[in-house]
Design goal:
118 residues, alpha+beta, 4-stranded antiparallel beta sheet, 4 helices, 4 strands
Length: 118
Amino acid sequence: MYNDGPTADGTAGIGAELESPFFQLINKICSLENTNKAKKSLIEGRTGLGWELTADTTGVAGELQAEHILDGRSIKVGSEDGAKAGKAIADDLVSTAANRTSRSVLLTMLDRLGTVAG
């Protein structure tokens, strides 16, 4: 049997994007092109086993929203890894760390990419 799943050993994985439209990062000085370059950037290093918090575009210049990603390359179908990652994401959402992320994070991300408009 040929295994062609996304995991390292070729077995089936499961992944998802959990949009967080209430969790926005805004910097009105950035162009749409520069904003798009920040897509998929890791936010404040917030990641864990099978998940990460990344920036997603909204289609509006200077505006990003956060999204939690369940990584289908590391979460195997039938394992408990998805449930563990989901619990970690829930904990991240209600943590103080989730509530303190602000506009400065977007500026830092864009500055790191060399895309902050002056």
